[in-house]
Amino acid sequence: MPQTLAEKILSMKIKRDVSPGEIVVVEVDAAMAHDGTAPLMIQSFKAMGMTKVWDPSRAVFVIDHIAPSSNEGTSALHKMMREFALQHGLNFFDVGEGICHQLLPEKGFVYPGGVVLGADSHTCTHGAFAAFSTGIGSTEMAAVFGSGKLWLRVPESLKVTVTGALKSYVTAKDVVLHVIGEVGADGATYMAVEYSGDTVKEMSIDSRMTLCNMAVEMGAKTGLIASDEKTRLFLEGRCQAPCKTIEPDSSAYYTDELIVEADKLEPMVSCPHEVDNVKAVAEVEGTPVDQVFIGSCTNGRLEDLRMAAQMLKGKKVKCRTIVMPASREVYLKALREGLIEIFLEAGCAVGVPGCGPCVGGHHGVPAPGEVVVATTNRNFKGRMGCAEAFIYLASPIVAAHAAIQGKIVHPKEVS
Amino acid sequence: MIIKGRAWKFGNNISTDHIIPGKYKFKTLDFRELAQHAMEGIDSEFSRRVQPGDIIVAGRNFGCGSSREQAPLVLKHAGVGAVVARSFARIFFRNSINVGLPVVICPEAYEAVEQGDLLEVNLAEGMLKNLSKGTVFNFKPLPDFLLKILLDGGLVEHYKMHGKFIWE
Ligand code: SF4
Protein backbone atom coordinates (compact mmCIF):
# COMPACT_ATOMS: atom_id res chain seq x y z
CA MET A 1 0.00 0.00 0.00
CA PRO A 2 1.34 3.47 -0.84
CA GLN A 3 1.92 5.39 2.37
CA THR A 4 1.72 8.92 3.69
CA LEU A 5 4.71 10.23 5.59
CA ALA A 6 3.10 9.48 8.96
CA GLU A 7 2.27 5.91 7.93
CA LYS A 8 5.73 5.41 6.52
CA ILE A 9 7.58 6.57 9.61
CA LEU A 10 5.43 4.52 11.97
CA SER A 11 5.69 1.45 9.69
CA MET A 12 9.48 1.78 9.65
CA LYS A 13 9.42 2.15 13.39
CA ILE A 14 7.44 -0.94 14.24
CA LYS A 15 8.64 -2.92 11.21
CA ARG A 16 5.27 -3.73 9.69
CA ASP A 17 2.77 -1.79 7.62
CA VAL A 18 0.32 0.28 9.62
CA SER A 19 -2.90 1.95 8.59
CA PRO A 20 -4.78 4.98 9.92
CA GLY A 21 -6.95 4.39 12.96
CA GLU A 22 -4.85 1.50 14.16
CA ILE A 23 -3.37 1.63 17.68
CA VAL A 24 0.33 0.86 17.74
CA VAL A 25 2.85 0.66 20.56
CA VAL A 26 6.10 2.44 19.75
CA GLU A 27 9.51 2.64 21.33
CA VAL A 28 10.35 6.26 21.92
CA ASP A 29 13.58 7.83 20.60
CA ALA A 30 13.42 11.02 22.64
CA ALA A 31 11.17 12.18 25.47
CA MET A 32 11.01 15.71 26.84
CA ALA A 33 9.28 17.60 29.63
CA HIS A 34 9.68 21.27 30.63
CA ASP A 35 9.02 23.34 33.71
CA GLY A 36 5.30 23.57 32.94
CA THR A 37 4.88 19.79 32.75
CA ALA A 38 7.88 18.06 34.37
CA PRO A 39 6.88 18.69 38.02
CA LEU A 40 3.59 16.87 37.54
CA MET A 41 5.43 14.19 35.58
CA ILE A 42 7.84 13.66 38.47
CA GLN A 43 4.92 13.43 40.85
CA SER A 44 3.18 10.78 38.71
CA PHE A 45 6.48 8.90 38.18
CA LYS A 46 6.93 8.65 41.93
CA ALA A 47 3.26 7.88 42.58
CA MET A 48 3.53 4.93 40.20
CA GLY A 49 6.41 3.69 42.30
CA MET A 50 8.89 3.94 39.44
CA THR A 51 12.53 4.26 40.33
CA LYS A 52 14.46 4.18 37.05
CA VAL A 53 14.29 6.19 33.84
CA TRP A 54 14.26 3.76 30.92
CA ASP A 55 17.11 5.44 29.04
CA PRO A 56 18.44 8.70 30.53
CA SER A 57 20.38 9.45 27.33
CA ARG A 58 17.05 9.85 25.51
CA ALA A 59 15.28 11.75 28.27
CA VAL A 60 15.36 15.55 28.35
CA PHE A 61 14.30 18.21 30.84
CA VAL A 62 14.20 21.89 29.85
CA ILE A 63 13.54 24.94 32.00
CA ASP A 64 12.18 27.42 29.49
CA HIS A 65 8.63 28.48 30.36
CA ILE A 66 9.39 30.66 33.36
CA ALA A 67 13.11 31.14 32.93
CA PRO A 68 14.60 32.60 35.01
CA SER A 69 11.99 31.98 37.68
CA SER A 70 9.81 34.91 38.66
CA ASN A 71 8.60 33.67 42.06
CA GLU A 72 9.26 31.26 44.91
CA GLY A 73 6.68 28.68 43.89
CA THR A 74 8.18 28.31 40.42
CA SER A 75 11.69 28.22 41.87
CA ALA A 76 10.69 25.29 44.07
CA LEU A 77 9.36 23.42 41.03
CA HIS A 78 12.57 24.18 39.11
CA LYS A 79 14.55 22.82 42.03
CA MET A 80 12.50 19.65 42.00
CA MET A 81 13.38 19.23 38.29
CA ARG A 82 17.10 19.81 38.87
CA GLU A 83 17.18 17.22 41.62
CA PHE A 84 15.33 14.63 39.55
CA ALA A 85 17.54 15.29 36.51
CA LEU A 86 20.69 14.92 38.56
CA GLN A 87 19.47 11.80 40.33
CA HIS A 88 18.57 10.06 37.06
CA GLY A 89 21.33 11.46 34.86
CA LEU A 90 18.94 13.11 32.39
CA ASN A 91 19.90 15.59 29.71
CA PHE A 92 19.15 18.81 31.45
CA PHE A 93 18.91 22.30 29.97
CA ASP A 94 18.63 24.99 32.57
CA VAL A 95 17.57 28.65 32.48
CA GLY A 96 18.92 30.51 29.45
CA GLU A 97 19.57 27.51 27.19
CA GLY A 98 16.42 28.13 25.21
CA ILE A 99 13.01 26.75 24.24
CA CYS A 100 12.58 22.98 24.33
CA HIS A 101 11.45 22.69 20.70
CA GLN A 102 14.51 24.57 19.52
CA LEU A 103 16.88 22.64 21.75
CA LEU A 104 15.78 19.12 20.82
CA PRO A 105 16.90 19.40 17.18
CA GLU A 106 19.88 21.63 17.95
CA LYS A 107 21.22 19.13 20.46
CA GLY A 108 20.73 16.11 18.23
CA PHE A 109 17.68 14.42 19.76
CA VAL A 110 15.60 14.65 16.58
CA TYR A 111 16.22 12.77 13.33
CA PRO A 112 14.20 11.44 10.40
CA GLY A 113 12.25 8.35 11.36
CA GLY A 114 12.57 8.95 15.09
CA VAL A 115 9.62 9.06 17.46
CA VAL A 116 9.77 12.15 19.65
CA LEU A 117 7.29 12.65 22.47
CA GLY A 118 7.14 15.84 24.47
CA ALA A 119 5.01 16.94 27.37
CA ASP A 120 4.16 20.02 25.35
CA SER A 121 1.65 20.48 22.57
CA HIS A 122 4.11 22.09 20.16
CA THR A 123 6.24 18.97 20.07
CA CYS A 124 4.72 18.63 16.58
CA THR A 125 7.47 21.07 15.49
CA HIS A 126 9.92 18.19 14.97
CA GLY A 127 7.94 16.83 12.08
CA ALA A 128 9.99 19.36 10.11
CA PHE A 129 12.76 16.73 10.27
CA ALA A 130 10.50 13.83 9.24
CA ALA A 131 10.40 12.62 12.83
CA PHE A 132 7.06 11.45 14.21
CA SER A 133 6.58 13.86 17.06
CA THR A 134 3.61 14.74 19.18
CA GLY A 135 2.58 16.19 22.51
CA ILE A 136 1.32 14.21 25.48
CA GLY A 137 0.49 15.01 29.10
CA SER A 138 2.58 14.67 32.23
CA THR A 139 1.30 11.34 33.51
CA GLU A 140 1.76 9.69 30.12
CA MET A 141 5.23 11.18 30.08
CA ALA A 142 5.85 9.49 33.41
CA ALA A 143 4.85 6.23 31.76
CA VAL A 144 7.26 6.95 28.89
CA PHE A 145 10.11 7.87 31.25
CA GLY A 146 9.51 4.61 33.08
CA SER A 147 8.97 2.25 30.17
CA GLY A 148 10.25 3.93 26.99
CA LYS A 149 7.05 3.00 25.18
CA LEU A 150 3.63 4.43 24.46
CA TRP A 151 0.52 3.67 22.45
CA LEU A 152 -0.29 5.93 19.53
CA ARG A 153 -3.16 5.99 17.11
CA VAL A 154 -1.90 6.05 13.52
CA PRO A 155 -3.28 9.33 12.20
CA GLU A 156 -5.12 10.05 9.01
CA SER A 157 -3.29 12.67 6.96
CA LEU A 158 -4.15 16.04 5.50
CA LYS A 159 -1.91 16.97 2.61
CA VAL A 160 -1.04 20.63 2.21
CA THR A 161 0.75 21.34 -1.06
CA VAL A 162 2.37 24.75 -1.30
CA THR A 163 3.52 25.84 -4.74
CA GLY A 164 5.03 28.99 -6.23
CA ALA A 165 7.32 31.69 -4.91
CA LEU A 166 6.44 33.71 -1.82
CA LYS A 167 6.46 37.49 -2.22
CA SER A 168 9.34 39.21 -0.50
CA TYR A 169 7.44 40.19 2.65
CA VAL A 170 5.51 36.94 2.90
CA THR A 171 6.90 34.13 5.04
CA ALA A 172 6.27 30.59 6.27
CA LYS A 173 4.25 32.13 9.11
CA ASP A 174 1.85 33.68 6.63
CA VAL A 175 1.53 30.32 4.89
CA VAL A 176 0.65 28.51 8.09
CA LEU A 177 -1.75 31.24 9.26
CA HIS A 178 -3.47 31.03 5.90
CA VAL A 179 -3.73 27.24 6.22
CA ILE A 180 -5.16 27.52 9.75
CA GLY A 181 -7.72 30.03 8.49
CA GLU A 182 -8.77 27.58 5.80
CA VAL A 183 -8.74 24.40 7.89
CA GLY A 184 -10.03 25.88 11.18
CA ALA A 185 -8.90 25.41 14.77
CA ASP A 186 -10.16 21.83 14.88
CA GLY A 187 -10.17 21.01 11.16
CA ALA A 188 -7.30 18.55 11.43
CA THR A 189 -8.06 17.03 14.84
CA TYR A 190 -6.11 13.82 15.34
CA MET A 191 -4.54 14.06 11.88
CA ALA A 192 -1.03 14.52 10.58
CA VAL A 193 -0.68 17.67 8.49
CA GLU A 194 1.82 16.81 5.78
CA TYR A 195 3.38 19.74 3.92
CA SER A 196 4.80 19.30 0.45
CA GLY A 197 5.32 21.17 -2.81
CA ASP A 198 8.15 23.17 -4.32
CA THR A 199 7.72 26.09 -1.90
CA VAL A 200 8.29 23.80 1.07
CA LYS A 201 11.28 22.18 -0.63
CA GLU A 202 12.77 25.63 -1.09
CA MET A 203 12.17 26.62 2.51
CA SER A 204 14.89 26.68 5.13
CA ILE A 205 14.74 24.37 8.14
CA ASP A 206 13.78 27.40 10.25
CA SER A 207 10.74 28.04 8.04
CA ARG A 208 9.77 24.38 7.94
CA MET A 209 9.78 24.32 11.73
CA THR A 210 7.40 27.30 11.72
CA LEU A 211 5.01 25.37 9.45
CA CYS A 212 5.04 22.22 11.59
CA ASN A 213 4.96 24.14 14.88
CA MET A 214 1.43 25.37 14.31
CA ALA A 215 -0.05 22.04 13.21
CA VAL A 216 -1.56 21.68 16.68
CA GLU A 217 -3.41 24.96 16.11
CA MET A 218 -5.55 22.96 13.66
CA GLY A 219 -6.00 20.21 16.23
CA ALA A 220 -3.44 18.02 14.48
CA LYS A 221 -1.35 15.36 16.13
CA THR A 222 1.69 16.45 14.20
CA GLY A 223 3.01 18.37 11.22
CA LEU A 224 5.32 16.53 8.84
CA ILE A 225 7.75 17.34 6.05
CA ALA A 226 9.87 14.87 4.03
CA SER A 227 13.56 14.88 4.90
CA ASP A 228 16.11 15.95 2.29
CA GLU A 229 19.57 17.44 1.85
CA LYS A 230 18.62 20.49 3.92
CA THR A 231 17.62 18.23 6.80
CA ARG A 232 20.94 16.41 6.53
CA LEU A 233 22.94 19.63 6.51
CA PHE A 234 21.17 20.90 9.62
CA LEU A 235 21.64 17.68 11.56
CA GLU A 236 25.25 17.17 10.51
CA GLY A 237 27.51 17.39 13.52
CA ARG A 238 24.54 17.49 15.88
CA CYS A 239 23.13 14.03 15.73
CA GLN A 240 24.70 10.56 15.81
CA ALA A 241 21.80 8.81 14.11
CA PRO A 242 21.89 8.54 10.31
CA CYS A 243 19.85 11.14 8.43
CA LYS A 244 17.61 9.06 6.21
CA THR A 245 15.64 10.53 3.36
CA ILE A 246 12.01 9.72 4.10
CA GLU A 247 9.34 10.70 1.61
CA PRO A 248 5.69 9.78 1.23
CA ASP A 249 4.61 7.60 -1.69
CA SER A 250 3.20 9.64 -4.53
CA SER A 251 -0.09 7.73 -4.66
CA ALA A 252 -0.70 7.63 -0.91
CA TYR A 253 -4.26 8.22 0.28
CA TYR A 254 -4.99 11.48 2.09
CA THR A 255 -8.24 12.17 3.93
CA ASP A 256 -8.13 15.68 2.59
CA GLU A 257 -5.93 17.91 0.47
CA LEU A 258 -5.35 21.62 0.38
CA ILE A 259 -3.43 23.48 -2.27
CA VAL A 260 -1.85 26.81 -1.43
CA GLU A 261 -0.67 29.12 -4.18
CA ALA A 262 2.19 30.81 -2.43
CA ASP A 263 2.54 33.66 -4.90
CA LYS A 264 -1.02 34.80 -4.17
CA LEU A 265 -0.48 35.03 -0.41
CA GLU A 266 -0.38 38.32 1.42
CA PRO A 267 0.90 38.96 4.95
CA MET A 268 -1.62 37.52 7.40
CA VAL A 269 -2.60 38.03 11.02
CA SER A 270 -4.56 35.82 13.34
CA CYS A 271 -6.91 38.15 15.20
CA PRO A 272 -8.16 38.00 18.82
CA HIS A 273 -9.23 35.68 20.37
CA GLU A 274 -9.23 32.65 18.10
CA VAL A 275 -6.26 31.35 16.20
CA ASP A 276 -8.35 30.60 13.10
CA ASN A 277 -9.67 34.17 13.00
CA VAL A 278 -7.16 34.84 10.23
CA LYS A 279 -7.26 37.99 8.13
CA ALA A 280 -5.02 39.72 5.63
CA VAL A 281 -2.98 42.47 7.28
CA ALA A 282 -4.74 44.96 5.01
CA GLU A 283 -8.04 44.22 6.78
CA VAL A 284 -6.76 45.33 10.19
CA GLU A 285 -4.46 48.06 8.89
CA GLY A 286 -4.04 50.90 11.36
CA THR A 287 -4.82 48.96 14.55
CA PRO A 288 -2.74 50.69 17.28
CA VAL A 289 -0.25 48.42 19.00
CA ASP A 290 1.07 48.62 22.58
CA GLN A 291 3.52 45.75 22.63
CA VAL A 292 5.39 43.65 20.08
CA PHE A 293 6.94 40.29 20.88
CA ILE A 294 9.38 38.64 18.50
CA GLY A 295 10.38 35.16 19.59
CA SER A 296 8.91 31.77 20.66
CA CYS A 297 9.18 28.27 19.24
CA THR A 298 7.22 29.51 16.22
CA ASN A 299 9.42 32.44 15.19
CA GLY A 300 12.43 32.88 17.45
CA ARG A 301 15.03 31.38 15.16
CA LEU A 302 17.94 33.02 13.35
CA GLU A 303 16.02 33.49 10.11
CA ASP A 304 13.23 35.21 12.05
CA LEU A 305 15.62 37.51 13.86
CA ARG A 306 17.29 38.36 10.55
CA MET A 307 13.96 39.31 9.01
CA ALA A 308 13.05 41.46 11.99
CA ALA A 309 16.49 43.08 12.11
CA GLN A 310 16.33 43.94 8.44
CA MET A 311 13.19 45.94 9.12
CA LEU A 312 14.41 47.51 12.34
CA LYS A 313 17.83 48.52 11.11
CA GLY A 314 18.36 52.22 11.60
CA LYS A 315 14.78 52.74 12.84
CA LYS A 316 13.29 53.36 16.25
CA VAL A 317 10.41 51.40 17.70
CA LYS A 318 7.24 53.31 18.60
CA CYS A 319 5.94 50.78 21.13
CA ARG A 320 7.66 48.49 23.59
CA THR A 321 9.23 45.63 21.72
CA ILE A 322 10.57 42.46 23.27
CA VAL A 323 12.89 40.17 21.35
CA MET A 324 13.81 36.73 22.66
CA PRO A 325 16.02 34.38 20.69
CA ALA A 326 14.77 30.80 20.77
CA SER A 327 18.04 29.40 22.12
CA ARG A 328 21.50 30.31 23.28
CA GLU A 329 22.87 29.13 19.93
CA VAL A 330 20.46 31.41 18.07
CA TYR A 331 21.34 34.27 20.44
CA LEU A 332 25.08 33.83 19.89
CA LYS A 333 24.73 33.71 16.13
CA ALA A 334 22.48 36.77 16.17
CA LEU A 335 25.01 38.54 18.36
CA ARG A 336 27.90 37.71 16.04
CA GLU A 337 25.91 38.84 13.00
CA GLY A 338 25.18 42.17 14.65
CA LEU A 339 21.43 41.58 14.88
CA ILE A 340 21.31 42.11 18.63
CA GLU A 341 22.98 45.48 18.19
CA ILE A 342 20.34 46.45 15.66
CA PHE A 343 17.57 45.48 18.09
CA LEU A 344 19.13 47.40 20.94
CA GLU A 345 19.74 50.50 18.85
CA ALA A 346 16.15 50.38 17.64
CA GLY A 347 15.01 50.47 21.27
CA CYS A 348 14.00 46.83 21.75
CA ALA A 349 14.29 44.91 25.02
CA VAL A 350 16.29 41.77 24.29
CA GLY A 351 15.59 38.95 26.72
CA VAL A 352 16.83 35.59 27.88
CA PRO A 353 16.28 32.69 25.44
CA GLY A 354 13.07 30.99 26.51
CA CYS A 355 9.32 31.18 26.09
CA GLY A 356 9.07 34.65 27.58
CA PRO A 357 5.74 36.44 27.19
CA CYS A 358 4.27 33.69 24.96
CA VAL A 359 2.70 31.81 27.82
CA GLY A 360 1.80 34.67 30.15
CA GLY A 361 3.89 33.68 33.13
CA HIS A 362 6.18 36.69 33.21
CA HIS A 363 8.39 38.87 30.99
CA GLY A 364 5.88 41.06 29.21
CA VAL A 365 2.34 40.50 30.46
CA PRO A 366 0.13 43.11 28.76
CA ALA A 367 -2.31 45.40 30.60
CA PRO A 368 -6.10 45.17 30.16
CA GLY A 369 -7.15 46.70 26.87
CA GLU A 370 -3.68 46.57 25.36
CA VAL A 371 -2.97 45.23 21.89
CA VAL A 372 -0.06 42.90 21.29
CA VAL A 373 1.43 41.76 18.00
CA ALA A 374 3.32 38.54 18.68
CA THR A 375 5.15 36.08 16.47
CA THR A 376 3.86 33.27 18.71
CA ASN A 377 1.24 30.62 18.01
CA ARG A 378 -1.72 31.23 20.35
CA ASN A 379 -3.99 34.18 20.95
CA PHE A 380 -6.61 32.73 23.28
CA LYS A 381 -8.04 35.15 25.79
CA GLY A 382 -5.61 35.31 28.67
CA ARG A 383 -2.82 33.53 26.83
CA MET A 384 -0.23 36.18 27.59
CA GLY A 385 -1.38 36.52 31.18
CA CYS A 386 -4.12 39.13 30.81
CA ALA A 387 -7.64 38.13 29.80
CA GLU A 388 -8.47 41.67 28.66
CA ALA A 389 -5.56 42.02 26.22
CA PHE A 390 -5.86 41.54 22.45
CA ILE A 391 -3.26 39.35 20.76
CA TYR A 392 -2.57 39.38 17.02
CA LEU A 393 -0.31 36.63 15.69
CA ALA A 394 1.94 37.57 12.82
CA SER A 395 5.27 36.99 11.09
CA PRO A 396 8.48 38.62 12.30
CA ILE A 397 8.24 41.03 9.37
CA VAL A 398 4.72 42.17 10.21
CA ALA A 399 5.62 42.32 13.91
CA ALA A 400 8.74 44.40 13.28
CA HIS A 401 6.73 46.80 11.09
CA ALA A 402 4.14 47.13 13.80
CA ALA A 403 6.92 47.99 16.23
CA ILE A 404 8.27 50.73 13.99
CA GLN A 405 4.84 52.17 13.18
CA GLY A 406 3.14 51.66 16.54
CA LYS A 407 0.27 50.14 14.57
CA ILE A 408 -0.42 47.24 12.25
CA VAL A 409 0.67 48.18 8.74
CA HIS A 410 1.10 46.22 5.53
CA PRO A 411 4.88 45.80 5.18
CA LYS A 412 4.78 46.78 1.52
CA GLU A 413 3.91 50.32 2.50
CA VAL A 414 6.97 50.96 4.62
CA SER A 415 9.65 48.80 3.03
CA MET B 1 -19.75 3.82 36.03
CA ILE B 2 -22.75 6.13 36.22
CA ILE B 3 -22.33 9.87 36.70
CA LYS B 4 -25.20 12.15 37.61
CA GLY B 5 -25.10 15.91 37.82
CA ARG B 6 -26.22 19.30 36.56
CA ALA B 7 -25.13 20.58 33.19
CA TRP B 8 -22.77 23.52 32.71
CA LYS B 9 -22.83 24.66 29.12
CA PHE B 10 -19.88 26.14 27.26
CA GLY B 11 -19.25 26.89 23.60
CA ASN B 12 -16.65 25.86 21.04
CA ASN B 13 -12.85 25.95 21.32
CA ILE B 14 -12.63 26.19 25.12
CA SER B 15 -8.87 26.15 25.52
CA THR B 16 -6.69 24.93 28.36
CA ASP B 17 -5.88 28.61 28.94
CA HIS B 18 -9.59 29.12 29.70
CA ILE B 19 -9.70 26.04 31.92
CA ILE B 20 -6.60 26.96 33.92
CA PRO B 21 -4.63 30.06 32.91
CA GLY B 22 -0.92 29.33 32.45
CA LYS B 23 0.11 31.84 35.06
CA TYR B 24 -1.19 29.61 37.87
CA LYS B 25 0.10 26.27 36.75
CA PHE B 26 3.77 27.18 36.98
CA LYS B 27 3.62 28.02 40.64
CA THR B 28 2.27 25.01 42.45
CA LEU B 29 1.19 21.40 42.36
CA ASP B 30 -1.45 22.03 45.03
CA PHE B 31 -4.66 21.15 43.24
CA ARG B 32 -6.94 22.40 45.97
CA GLU B 33 -5.50 25.82 45.23
CA LEU B 34 -5.44 25.39 41.45
CA ALA B 35 -9.04 24.14 41.43
CA GLN B 36 -10.16 27.53 42.72
CA HIS B 37 -9.25 28.87 39.29
CA ALA B 38 -11.06 26.19 37.27
CA MET B 39 -12.66 27.70 34.13
CA GLU B 40 -11.61 31.13 35.33
CA GLY B 41 -10.77 32.21 31.79
CA ILE B 42 -14.42 31.92 30.80
CA ASP B 43 -16.53 31.95 33.98
CA SER B 44 -15.02 33.36 37.15
CA GLU B 45 -17.96 32.04 39.23
CA PHE B 46 -17.58 28.45 38.09
CA SER B 47 -15.25 27.12 40.77
CA ARG B 48 -17.42 28.55 43.56
CA ARG B 49 -20.70 27.28 42.19
CA VAL B 50 -19.89 23.89 40.70
CA GLN B 51 -21.26 20.93 42.67
CA PRO B 52 -19.64 17.48 42.90
CA GLY B 53 -20.72 15.38 39.95
CA ASP B 54 -21.72 18.30 37.72
CA ILE B 55 -21.23 17.73 34.03
CA ILE B 56 -19.67 20.13 31.55
CA VAL B 57 -21.40 20.12 28.18
CA ALA B 58 -19.36 21.83 25.49
CA GLY B 59 -19.17 22.37 21.76
CA ARG B 60 -16.33 21.51 19.43
CA ASN B 61 -12.63 21.18 20.29
CA PHE B 62 -12.91 21.27 24.07
CA GLY B 63 -9.49 21.51 25.75
CA CYS B 64 -7.59 22.82 22.75
CA GLY B 65 -4.21 24.43 23.23
CA SER B 66 -1.47 23.47 25.61
CA SER B 67 -0.71 19.97 26.81
CA ARG B 68 -1.16 20.92 30.45
CA GLU B 69 -2.57 18.00 32.36
CA GLN B 70 -3.47 20.54 35.02
CA ALA B 71 -6.55 21.29 32.87
CA PRO B 72 -8.44 18.00 33.36
CA LEU B 73 -6.99 17.77 36.88
CA VAL B 74 -8.42 21.11 38.02
CA LEU B 75 -11.82 20.12 36.63
CA LYS B 76 -11.64 16.83 38.49
CA HIS B 77 -10.53 18.52 41.71
CA ALA B 78 -13.25 21.16 41.31
CA GLY B 79 -15.74 18.29 41.37
CA VAL B 80 -16.64 17.94 37.70
CA GLY B 81 -18.00 14.44 37.14
CA ALA B 82 -17.62 14.28 33.36
CA VAL B 83 -17.15 16.39 30.28
CA VAL B 84 -19.48 15.83 27.34
CA ALA B 85 -18.49 17.59 24.12
CA ARG B 86 -19.10 17.62 20.40
CA SER B 87 -15.37 16.95 20.06
CA PHE B 88 -12.18 17.18 22.11
CA ALA B 89 -8.65 18.30 21.38
CA ARG B 90 -6.53 15.16 21.36
CA ILE B 91 -4.09 15.85 24.20
CA PHE B 92 -6.88 16.96 26.54
CA PHE B 93 -8.76 13.79 25.67
CA ARG B 94 -5.79 11.56 26.46
CA ASN B 95 -4.97 13.52 29.60
CA SER B 96 -8.51 13.22 30.90
CA ILE B 97 -8.44 9.46 30.69
CA ASN B 98 -5.00 9.40 32.28
CA VAL B 99 -6.18 11.42 35.27
CA GLY B 100 -9.51 9.61 35.54
CA LEU B 101 -11.84 12.36 34.32
CA PRO B 102 -14.62 10.81 32.20
CA VAL B 103 -14.87 12.30 28.70
CA VAL B 104 -17.74 11.65 26.33
CA ILE B 105 -17.98 12.53 22.65
CA CYS B 106 -21.67 13.03 21.93
CA PRO B 107 -22.33 15.67 19.24
CA GLU B 108 -26.14 15.28 19.42
CA ALA B 109 -26.37 16.09 23.11
CA TYR B 110 -25.14 19.66 22.77
CA GLU B 111 -28.28 21.28 21.35
CA ALA B 112 -30.54 19.16 23.54
CA VAL B 113 -29.05 20.21 26.87
CA GLU B 114 -29.63 23.49 28.67
CA GLN B 115 -27.62 24.97 31.50
CA GLY B 116 -28.73 23.33 34.75
CA ASP B 117 -30.41 20.25 33.24
CA LEU B 118 -29.96 17.10 35.27
CA LEU B 119 -27.92 14.57 33.29
CA GLU B 120 -26.93 10.96 33.77
CA VAL B 121 -24.04 9.35 31.89
CA ASN B 122 -23.40 5.63 31.64
CA LEU B 123 -19.84 5.28 30.35
CA ALA B 124 -19.69 1.57 29.67
CA GLU B 125 -23.05 1.46 27.92
CA GLY B 126 -22.55 4.67 26.01
CA MET B 127 -25.78 6.29 27.14
CA LEU B 128 -26.51 9.87 28.14
CA LYS B 129 -29.90 10.74 29.64
CA ASN B 130 -31.21 14.25 30.03
CA LEU B 131 -33.43 13.62 33.06
CA SER B 132 -34.83 17.17 33.00
CA LYS B 133 -36.04 16.81 29.41
CA GLY B 134 -36.64 13.08 29.28
CA THR B 135 -34.34 12.55 26.30
CA VAL B 136 -31.76 9.83 25.73
CA PHE B 137 -28.62 9.84 23.55
CA ASN B 138 -26.24 7.09 22.63
CA PHE B 139 -22.52 7.55 22.15
CA LYS B 140 -19.67 5.26 21.22
CA PRO B 141 -18.04 4.02 24.44
CA LEU B 142 -14.28 4.39 24.73
CA PRO B 143 -12.12 1.59 23.34
CA ASP B 144 -11.83 -1.13 26.00
CA PHE B 145 -8.27 -0.41 27.02
CA LEU B 146 -8.96 3.29 27.58
CA LEU B 147 -12.15 2.57 29.48
CA LYS B 148 -10.15 0.24 31.70
CA ILE B 149 -7.58 2.98 32.49
CA LEU B 150 -10.38 5.44 33.20
CA LEU B 151 -12.32 3.06 35.43
CA ASP B 152 -9.15 2.16 37.31
CA GLY B 153 -9.03 5.86 38.22
CA GLY B 154 -6.39 7.01 35.74
CA LEU B 155 -2.95 5.89 34.64
CA VAL B 156 -1.22 6.12 38.03
CA GLU B 157 -3.85 4.00 39.77
CA HIS B 158 -3.94 1.65 36.81
CA TYR B 159 -0.20 1.08 37.01
CA LYS B 160 -0.27 0.64 40.77
CA MET B 161 -3.00 -1.99 40.45
CA HIS B 162 -1.45 -4.02 37.67
CA GLY B 163 2.28 -3.32 37.88
CA LYS B 164 2.37 -2.66 34.14
CA PHE B 165 0.56 -0.66 31.49
CA ILE B 166 -2.27 -2.24 29.61
CA TRP B 167 -0.48 -1.70 26.28
CA GLU B 168 2.72 -3.43 27.41
S1 SF4 C 1 7.41 29.43 23.14
FE1 SF4 C 1 5.25 29.47 23.70
S2 SF4 C 1 4.29 27.89 22.48
FE2 SF4 C 1 6.50 27.55 22.39
S3 SF4 C 1 6.92 26.05 23.99
FE3 SF4 C 1 7.19 28.08 24.88
S4 SF4 C 1 5.21 28.62 25.76
FE4 SF4 C 1 4.87 26.90 24.37
Notes on the protein architecture:
The complex is a heterodimer of chains A (415) and B (168). Chain A folds into two domains: 7-242 and 249-260, 2-Layer Sandwich (Aconitase, domain 3); 268-405, Aconitase, domain 3. Helices cover 31% and strands 18% of the residues of chain A. Chain A has 14 helices and 18 strands. Chain A has helices at residues 5-14, 38-47, 72-88, 100-106, 138-147, 172-183, 198-202, 205-213, 229-235, 296-299, 302-312, 328-336, 339-346, 396-405; strands at residues 23-27, 30-34, 59-62, 91-93, 115-118, 132-135, 149-153, 157-163, 192-196, 222-225, 256-261, 268-270, 278-280, 291-294, 320-323, 349-350, 371-374, 390-393. In chain A, helix 6 runs parallel beside helix 8 (205-213) and helix 11 crosses helix 13. The model of chain A has no long low-confidence stretch (mean pLDDT 96). With 168 residues, chain B is α/β, with parallel strands linked by helices. Chain B has nine helices and seven strands; from the N terminus they run βααααβαβαβαβββαα. Chain B has helices at 16-19, 22-25, 31-34, 46-49, 70-78, 90-99, 109-112, 144-151, 155-162; strands spanning 2-9, 55-58, 82-85, 103-105, 118-122, 127-130, 135-138. The model of chain B has no long low-confidence stretch (mean pLDDT 94). Chains A and B meet through helix 2, helix 3, helix 5 and strand 7 of A and helix 2, helix 6 and helix 9 of B. Bound molecules: iron/sulfur cluster.
